[in-house]
Design a protein that fits this description.
286 residues
């Protein structure tokens, strides 16, 4: 007969210290999920408080609508234009997503060349830094003159804006590859192309996606700048028309749409990064 608390014959004893750790592992996903829900609720609550304070400020101090419309007027403006707003949003999102894809693709190719060819790094990288000092509001009208009022100039403007963060982040990721691992793969006979494909590019993925997330937040800004300079459809031309007609409530509707779509793009890239680099995002969060 087995005494109470004793381990039966044939059953391997489990150290007492392991039991609490295993139980803690089982509860961590639940705690992480509850923490995310609490954080999300706090963020929405903070936005709600800011909107309420905005409404009270305008009503209490009787601020003129042409200076600062209350949120209730902004909502009223949204209901007026909700039939035409999706078309403007769709045109801007199309330019932003295409520009992000084109800019990121070219940036990755150039980053690989910069990281592997020292002469290109010494010559091209400083020129890229200098190019960022040129305001895009100066370049956008030139692109419209050269390429017309279609989709192409908007895509190019977005690509130029998102290009630099991705290049810098990807080059930094390739440079930060573990040197011992690089030496090990070289000692096994791997050439430059194989070393790049099997070691350096996978090691640079987290840095690439970090730069891509920053670029995703800028993509909508680039598309709106291009439409502001000249377009037939999009949130940029929508904002221009609302501003010239002194409809500040519609301006706030456009700003809100830009902010929401920018957040959605950022979260989409972040979700893509979680799928592409699962080792960077373990399921059990501490």
């Amino acid at each position: 007969m087995t005494a109470p608390g004793a381990v039966p014959d044939g059953v391997e004893a489990v150290p007492v210290s392991v039991v609490p750790a295993a139980a803690a592992d089982l509860t961590r996903p639940g705690r992480a999920r509850r923490r995310r829900l609490v954080d999300t609720a706090l963020a929405f609550g903070l936005v709600g408080l800011l909107v309420l304070a905005w409404q009270l400020y305008v009503r209490v101090f009787d601020v003129a609508p042409y200076l600062l419309p209350p949120p209730s007027d902004v909502w009223g403006a949204f209901t007026e234009i909700r039939g035409t707003l999706p078309g403007h949003i769709g045109a801007t999102v199309t330019a932003a997503v295409l520009g992000l894809m084109v800019g990121a693709t070219v940036a990755v190719g150039l980053a690989v060349v910069i990281a592997t060819v020292p002469l290109v790094r010494r010559v091209v990288l400083p020129l890229l830094v200098v190019s960022q000092s040129i305001p895009m509001v100066v370049v956008a009208p030139l692109l419209i003159v050269w390429m017309g009022f279609g989709l192409a100039p908007k895509v190019v403007v977005v690509a130029l804006i998102v290009f630099f963060p991705v290049v810098v982040a990807t080059v930094a990721g390739i440079d930060a590859t573990d040197r011992d691992l690089v030496d090990l793969v070289r000692s096994m006979g791997a050439g430059r192309a194989r070393l790049l494909r099997t070691v350096q590019v996978p090691a640079a993925l987290p840095s690439f996606f970090a730069g891509l997330q920053v670029s995703a937040a800028y993509a909508m800004l680039g598309a709106v700048i291009a439409e502001w300079m000249g377009a037939s459809e999009g949130l940029g031309i929508f904002l221009t028309r609302a501003q010239t007609s002194f409809r500040l409530d519609r301006v706030f509707v456009g700003i809100t749409a830009i902010a929401l779509v920018s957040v959605a793009l950022f979260l989409a890239v972040r979700l893509l990064a979680r799928f592409a680099t699962p080792w960077q995002h373990p399921r059990l969060e501490h």
